[in-house]
Amino acid sequence: MTPPPARRRRNGANGSAPAHNLPRRGTVRRAQAITTYGVGSLIAVDQESFVVSGLDGADASWITDESPRIHERRLARLLGVDCFRLPPASDDGSKDGLRVRRFPLMHSCPECTELQRHREFNPPAGRSICGTCEVDLVPSRFVVACEAGHLGEFPYWQWVHRSTERGAATAGLCGGKLRLRSSGRTSSLRSILVSCTCGKASEVSMEGSFRRNALKDLGLKCHGTRPWLGSSAPAQECGLSLRTLQRGSSAVWQPVLKSALSIPPWSNGRADPLAEHWDALREYDSRDHVEIYLKGVFKGNCPVPLDEVMALLDAEREEDPDGQTAPTFDHRYRALRNKEYERLRSGNDGSEHSRDEQFVCETPLGDQSVLGPLGVTGPMLVKKLREVRALKAFTRLADPESTTESKEMPLSDASLRWLPAMEVRGEGVFLRLDEDRIGTWEKAVAVAARIERMRTAHQRVLEQRAGDPSQVVPSPAVPRMVLLHTLAHILINESSLEAGYPAAALRERLYATDDMAGVLIYTATSDSAGSLGGLVAQGEPALLDRTIRSAVRRAEWCSSDPLCMETEVSGTGGTNLAACHACVMLPETSCEHNNILLDRALLVGTPEDPDLGFFANILAH
Questions:
Q1: What is the C-alpha separation between 245 and 253, in angstroms, rounded?
Q2: Which end of the chain has fewer beta carbons closer than 10 Å to its terminal beta carbon, N or C?
Q3: Tens digits of per-residue pLDDT, 85-143?
């Protein structure tokens, strides 16, 4: 969405107060400050490159004096914060903005070919040009990172002098100057040539610098640098291997996003007058103790009835994992999803609530028996929903097909009581698969064999990603999860044709465990276009029956068949089977699992085994 001209969305600050009198460097949308240009990411502005600063710190912090607060108690409790804030989106008179710092510092001049730190070119104040040649400087195309999330400059000195007698350890002490030029013969790394004027090292190309052990072979280890936190943040002892990356590579920064739906009793749309007191209230188990605390704080005039306070506390405790004395984050996040599933099943009739209610989920009026032959049950029309997506942390060098979030880098060096987040309001359709039918289907030998191939491949990827065997999480690949995931993808593709939304504006939310088998397809836009009514209308049984049948028949054939259907492995790491961009894959914003763990054969079967598909009976008629 193009922002209105009167509102300037930017990642620099320009305030009237002296403390915020910083030059403006560019503009980003609010959503991009969470999904694309969050804390620790690199952003290109014109001919310059910057790293987005941390949320808090002496000289690296976001300026959010005017940013609205977002309250979502379930998610805030899970993430250990008091509230969330929208990223800055300031007009010309505001002090708000995101601070950035120049990174990488190594630049080259295309005229004199010198390669050195930005300040050594003596550029005029506020400009990034060579003080001698008066041409725009080019930020280094290459940076280094480790799997712990640290980020650093590419070691050009060590790379050039790696073959000298003194070795990489003393490189940089030769007294010469580095130069970088392109031979112009090809666009490959072989044409990027780096040399030193000391004459003790020959001109070398950047070829081989992206090899996994290229920097390890030079004896280089990560020093734990965190440029997004500013000069006041000391480097951390790390020692992990460094990897060379392109400055604009998606592997440089990946967000760790967590989300929750606003469901009753927290979805009434009212401001929470007890927001600052819930941590204290959770310490009390008895009604009498809660009443004493509220009387002491509010002098007998508590703005919330005691019965409502107790109901909210009980609802919170119901989301705690059963039998877990010290539940992990994953267990608590799963418990949060369980409560959403229960509420989606039971519904929340809008006629019984005020217009401020943020969650309206109703049973369709049509005859649901038409869905019985499909194995689909319990469709619900989610006419209003509110989702809060928060940026919890970020990672680097994560494999695209990995769902683990190990080695997360926090957004600040200090303890935070808030996190950046976005609100999404829209609509959706929720449906479940018949438990008896899916229970029989997932016990089939052929189904188990296909899932085991995917699970083994994904588990191998998780082990390679984690490094430490004790940190490996089990793969979520089970028959119902892969089935629901693939079904959600084909329904999004089909709904984009029927409901008028592009596929990138729809999202999936999976509920797939031993006692859950449901999927929510909902709008993912953060403005009023998310509630136009086109999607929720698809939840009426007659239309849903037609949509599912059309989607399944469409999934039966792929323009890449027979290769797509008959492939033994698909996707990086072999984490997919019969799935490709021509049939079931979606835009990254729509998928919860990065387009992995997909197999349309589980929906429609294979030519050799048509009964393998859960919806094989549709195709038989």
A1: 11
A2: C
A3: 998 876 666 677 888 899 999 999 999 999 999 999 999 888 899 988 889 999 999 99
C-alpha to C-alpha distance for 201 and 220, rounded to whole angstroms: 19
3-state secondary structure of 238: coil
* Coil/strand/helix, residue 419: strand
What is residue 3's predicted lDDT score, i.e. its pLDDT? 39
In angstroms, the CA 486 to CA 601 distance is 9
Order the strands of the 42-45 sheet from edge to edge.
42-45, 48-52, 100-102
Separation of alpha carbons 489 and 521, rounded Å = 9
d(CA 226, CA 231): 9
Tokens representing 392 are 């919890």
Nearest-10 Cα torsion for 130, 223, 254, 583: 100
The residues, any chain, with a CB within 8 Å of residue 599's CB and separated by 6 or more, are: 450, 454, 482, 486, 576, 577, 578, 579
As to burial, measured by CB atoms within 10 angstroms (0-12 exposed, 13-18 middle, 19+ buried), residue 271 is: exposed
- List, in sequence order, every residue forming a beta bridge with 153; answer none if it has no partner: 143
The set of residues, in sequence order, having a beta carbon less than 8 Å from that of 175 and lying 6+ positions away, is: 198
What gap in Å lies between CA 177 and CA 199, rounded to an integer?
10
Q: How far is CA 458 from CA 461, 488, 591, 593, in A?
A: 5, 20, 17, 12
Token pair 């942390």 in the structure block, residue: 393
Q: Which amino acid is at 222?
A: C
- C-beta neighbour count of 357 within 10 angstroms: 18
Return the number of other C-beta atoms located less than 10 Å from residue 502's C-beta.
Answer: 10
In contact, 22 and 99? CB cutoff 8 Å: yes
pLDDT band at 11 (very low <50, low <70, confident <90, very high): very low
Contact by Cβ (8 Å): 473, 407: no
Averaged pLDDT score across all residues of the chain: 83
**What are the strands, taking DSSP E only, across 491-564?**
506-513, 516-523
E strand or H helix at 441, and its extent? helix 435-441
Q: How far apart are CA 264 and CA 453, in angstroms?
A: 40
In 3D space, the residue among 542, 389, 364, 346 whose CA is nearest the CA of residue 79 turns out to be 389
Instruction: In whole angstroms, give the CA distance from residue 386 to residue 427.
Output: 9
Q: Which residues contact 598 (CB under 8 A, 6 or more apart)?
A: 482, 485, 486, 489, 571, 576, 577, 579, 584, 585
pLDDT at position 169 is 47
State pTM to two decimals: 0.83
The backbone torsions φ and ψ at residue 2, rounded to the nearest 5 degrees and listed phi first, read -80, 125
Token pair recorded at residue 182: 């392109």
CA-based angle 55:70:384, to the nearest 5?
140
CB 530 within 8 A of CB 523: yes
Burial per residue of 230-260, b for 16 or more beta-carbon CB atoms within 10 angstroms, e otherwise: beebeeeebebbbbbbebebeebbbbbbbbb
Contact indicator for 54, 411 with CB cutoff of 8 Å: yes
Burial profile 319-344: b = 16 or more Cβ within 10 angstroms, e = fewer: bebeeeeeeeeeebbebbbbbbbebb
pLDDT band (50, 70, 90) for residue 600: very high
The rounded distance, in Å, linking the Cα atoms of 301 and 237 is 53
